[in-house]
Design brief:
Blueprint: H1 18-28, H2 42-68, H3 77-98, H4 104-109, E1 111-115, H5 123-139, H6 149-152, H7 159-164, E2 166-170, H8 171-182
Helix pairs in contact: 2-3, 3-5
Keywords: Cell membrane, Membrane, Transmembrane, Transmembrane helix
Transmembrane segments: 46-70, 82-100, 135-152
Protein name: RDD domain-containing protein
Length: 191
């Protein structure tokens, strides 16, 4: 039997294109969708980051000071820089994962890291945001410009947030929202 050449042949390929598929998948897996004012601004994040740098410096002094009693290897500047980087990355990775998106600086300023595609931060998300992206942002002095998008983007995200699909929100707004939804509705009784 001859087929009409103008007839379309059925294919096993999906009818949707890849961008549509990704958009649908992202819509299915959306968590922590907040209005723009819920996201922490550049200056709040910067102050929290400075507190975290002080905490990292204290940890480095304690840890390296303890090891310095046993060895003189930390007297070399390269080893000192590498040990600082390891402590810096370990601090941000472990605090963010184990403390539900908060470091000491974020706790003081009432901030929290949330993921838009997961309910809880996974190890993959934390390692991407706090490990790989912070490493890249610390690699060269010019990489500090990667923090600037936090001042101008809609969700106030820096480069690491874009790669890991995360954002930093202000806990006071979250508490206000949860209090509004938790309040019982008043019932009027006609007597």
């Amino acid at each position: 039997m001859m087929q009409n050449p103008n007839e379309q042949q059925p294919t096993n390929q999906p009818a949707t294109s890849l961008p549509k598929f990704l958009a649908q998948k992202q819509q299915q897996n959306t968590f922590h969708q907040y209005p723009q004012e819920y996201f922490a601004g550049f200056w709040m994040r910067m102050w929290a980051y400075l507190v975290d740098l002080i905490a990292v410096g204290c940890l480095k002094t304690i840890i390296i000071g303890w090891f310095s009693w046993f060895t003189t290897i930390f007297d070399q500047p390269v080893i000192d820089k590498i040990s600082y980087l390891i402590i810096y990355l370990a601090y941000f990775i472990l605090m963010t994962k184990w403390n539900h998106g908060q470091t000491i600086g974020k706790m003081i300023f009432g901030l929290k890291v949330v993921c838009f595609s997961e309910d809880q931060l996974s190890w993959a998300t934390v390692l991407t945001r706090e490990g790989a992206c912070r490493f890249m942002l610390q690699a060269f002095i010019l990489c500090y410009f990667g923090y600037l998008p936090a001042a101008f983007s809609k969700r106030k995200s820096h480069i690491g947030d874009f790669f890991s699909n995360t954002g930093v929100v202000t806990l006071n707004y979250l508490k206000l929202t949860s209090e509004k939804t938790a309040q019982p509705k008043e019932e009027f009784v006609h007597g």
